[in-house]
UniProtKB/TrEMBL annotation, chain A:
<comment type="similarity">
    <text>Belongs to the binding-protein-dependent transport system permease family. CysTW subfamily.</text>
</comment>
<dbReference type="Pfam" id="PF00528">
    <property type="entry name" value="BPD_transp_1"/>
</dbReference>
<feature type="domain" description="ABC transmembrane type-1">
    <location>
        <begin position="87"/>
        <end position="292"/>
    </location>
</feature>
<feature type="region of interest" description="Disordered">
    <location>
        <begin position="1"/>
        <end position="22"/>
    </location>
</feature>
<keyword id="KW-1003">Cell membrane</keyword>
<feature type="transmembrane region" description="Helical">
    <location>
        <begin position="122"/>
        <end position="146"/>
    </location>
</feature>
<feature type="transmembrane region" description="Helical">
    <location>
        <begin position="214"/>
        <end position="241"/>
    </location>
</feature>
<dbReference type="InterPro" id="IPR035906">
    <property type="entry name" value="MetI-like_sf"/>
</dbReference>
<keyword id="KW-0472">Membrane</keyword>
From TrEMBL, chain B:
<comment type="similarity">
    <text>Belongs to the binding-protein-dependent transport system permease family.</text>
</comment>
<feature type="transmembrane region" description="Helical">
    <location>
        <begin position="32"/>
        <end position="58"/>
    </location>
</feature>
<keyword id="KW-1133">Transmembrane helix</keyword>
<keyword id="KW-1003">Cell membrane</keyword>
<keyword id="KW-0813">Transport</keyword>
<dbReference type="Pfam" id="PF00528">
    <property type="entry name" value="BPD_transp_1"/>
</dbReference>
<feature type="transmembrane region" description="Helical">
    <location>
        <begin position="262"/>
        <end position="284"/>
    </location>
</feature>
<feature type="domain" description="ABC transmembrane type-1">
    <location>
        <begin position="88"/>
        <end position="279"/>
    </location>
</feature>
<feature type="transmembrane region" description="Helical">
    <location>
        <begin position="126"/>
        <end position="148"/>
    </location>
</feature>
Length: 309, 294
């Protein structure tokens, strides 16, 4: 790895001592010269470890372990209703999770623009699930949400009958939400931070009431951020993996798209089949990204900060 | 900043409805809903995390508010029986290697993207954005297949390489605004005084970029620590990190005692909290994510 990092250090240390040539000058005018080599290590690493594996995965997905039909990995996936349904099961989980996380995170993130007591504490607690990841969340949920866990004890003490929270759809749903809400929150905090509060104050000065300020000023400015947050939460929830196994019902209700990938790769060592399903997942994700980003670009894109001069 | 804004508010001409003055004191329905929801979320998160902590000290806990008794022996057993010391060492090794490589390759790239316009710049930008936007599960398996193909499968090298994919673009994108805020005239002055490229970097740019590099490095460390999917598919028992070992113990059909996995989980939490606490001192999270998803 140090090998890739070295060439740029050398090139910046000893610039070539050749006499200037017209071609070099012409290139330099367009921004091409030797300092451009500085970007090479990063581009090489991403090219070799991100772009190439994609192409490699695409090519092995057409070379199934059994049989000669190059498309058999794909026909196997779409031909088997159990595997095919995993797309639908993923969507049924990811769309509500993304929607609910943005809906829950937006009001709180919006309030974070103003200072209040305990702001640091709220930020820290909200960030904890993001740092720990879903494996740890699942471990904790197995106790708290179990039939004799704290949540059910609390519910029965106020007269609500015991609920089965984990090892079903709800379990994975809660686990996804616990990671997705902080994700949306952190993103939205960034977006809302860019909306100048003086715009709102100016509207208030000009006589806009609370509702008018919200619908006419805040919403148009915030919607692009909300759509972006929703999109990225959706894509992230689309690839939910550990919690579908640990607190879900992996063979039925939470048999999401990542599970056939995991079973093919880790249990059967059938990488071509796993790569084929991963390709299906990638295409679906890119589709979601493309459609929603197109939608976002049709929204208001003007400045969100007031001039101060 | 705050004083000018409150002044602005006080100085504003009286609105049509005078009660609007006291709007911050009067709780509205939406604010009540927001705070109750936020409170519930905070409570659930704290409950989930503290239950792991309680579990790790419990002799037995078959449900109910509190375990039957307390003991600290699980930590000792986790340390010896589950190969946790190995996983812990692997985690730190991988984390440090990833941070070093990311900074070496990412800082120059970030510098160039911030300062220069060149043909193909938008392609490079897209190349840096995609690994961050796409969840790791979309490329984890292909990457693992490739690693096994070239004979690196299951080694520490593979773990380090695989973790570079989401973290290197993170460093690049975090560095761009940090470079942008350094005035180019500082660089020009250094050149006038005879600094060559190497000196410019080591004597002028690196010291000015140090806060950003520190922030980026710690974020990378935290992300590598928690990166489950990527490490899971390429690592073996010899090269797994803490999260992967934890997942293995939880999902083990043979039934590892839950208190034992809890002890592993608490160790993992301690390591992660340490990283988070340090990173919060140097970087505001919203700033980092905003750069990620711009």
């Amino acid at each position: 790895m140090t090998l890739t990092a070295e060439p740029d250090a050398r090139s910046s240390a000893a610039p070539p001592k050749r006499p200037p040539q017209p071609l070099r000058h012409r290139l330099a005018e367009r921004g091409v010269d030797w300092t451009l080599l500085l970007i090479l290590p990063a581009v090489l690493i991403i090219g070799a470890l991100f772009v190439y594996p994609f192409l490699y995965g695409l090519s092995i997905s057409f070379q199934p372990l059994r049989g000669n039909d190059p498309l058999s990995n794909y026909t196997d996936f779409f031909g088997d209703p159990y595997l095919r349904d995993s797309i639908w099961k993923t969507l049924r989980l990811a769309v509500p999770v993304a929607f609910l996380s943005v809906a829950a995170a937006a009001p709180l993130a919006f309030r974070m623009r103003r200072d209040f007591p305990g702001r640091q504490f709220v930020t820290l607690v909200v960030l904890l699930p993001l740092t720990f990841g879903s494996v740890l969340i699942a471990q904790g949920m197995a106790q708290v949400f179990s039939t004799t866990g704290w949540i059910n004890l609390l519910l029965t003490s106020v007269g609500i009958p015991e609920q089965q929270f984990i090892y079903n759809y709800t379990g994975t749903f809660i686990a996804a939400l616990l990671v997705s809400i902080p994700f949306a929150f952190v993103m939205l905090m960034g977006f809302f931070g860019g909306i100048d509060r003086s715009i709102e104050d100016a509207a208030a000065t000009l006589g806009a009431g609370r509702a008018a300020r919200f619908w006419r000023i805040i919403m148009p400015l915030a919607t692009p951020g909300l759509v972006t947050a929703f999109t990225l939460c959706l894509v992230e929830a689309f690839a939910i993996f550990p919690s579908a196994i640990l607190v879900g019902q992996p063979d039925n209700a939470t048999h999401v798209l990542t599970l056939p990938i995991y079973q093919a790769a880790s249990q059967r060592s059938d990488y071509p089949a796993a790569a084929a399903i991963a390709m299906v997942m990638t295409v679906l994700e890119l589709l979601i990204l493309g459609v929603l980003m197109l939608l976002r670009n049709r929204l208001y894109r003007g400045p969100s900060s007031g001039g101060k001069g | 900043m705050t004083t000018t804004e409150t002044l602005l508010e006080r100085g504003a001409p009286a609105p049509a409805r005078p009660p609007a003055r006291t709007r911050r004191e009067r709780p509205t329905l939406t604010s009540v809903i927001t705070w109750v929801a936020a409170g519930c979320f905070v409570l659930v998160v704290l409950a989930v995390l503290s239950s792991v902590l309680v579990q790790s000290f419990a002799t037995t806990w078959r449900g109910g508010w509190w375990p039957d008794g307390f003991t600290a022996t699980w930590y000792g057993r986790a340390w010896t029986a589950t190969g946790m010391s190995r996983a812990l060492a692997n985690t730190f090794q991988a984390g440090i290697a990833v941070v070093v490589i990311c900074l070496l390759a990412g800082v120059p790239a970030g510098y160039l993207l911030a300062r220069r316009n060149f043909p193909g710049r938008s392609v490079v930008m897209l190349l840096m954005l995609l690994p961050i936007i796409l969840p790791p599960m979309t490329y984890a398996v292909q990457l693992a297949a490739l690693m096994y193909r070239v004979g690196l499968g299951g080694t520490m090298t593979a773990v380090v390489l695989v973790n570079l994919v989401p973290t290197l673009p993170l460093v690049v994108l975090i560095m761009v605004p940090f470079v942008e805020q350094i005035s180019p005239s500082v660089e020009n002055a250094a050149r006038v005084f005879g600094a060559d490229n190497l000196r410019l970097f080591t004597r002028v740019l690196i010291p000015l970029l140090l806060p950003g590099m520190l922030a980026a490095g710690i974020l990378v460390l935290v992300r590598t620590l928690g990166a489950f999917e990527l490490t899971f598919f390429v690592s073996s028992a010899q090269s797994q990190t803490l999260v992967v070992a934890l997942f293995g113990a939880i999902s083990d059909p043979g039934g590892v005692p839950i208190s034992l996995t809890a002890a592993m989980a608490v160790t993992y939490m301690l390591v992660a909290v340490l990283g988070l606490a340090i990173s919060l001192r140097y970087v505001t999270p919203s700033q980092a994510i905003r750069q990620r998803h711009r």
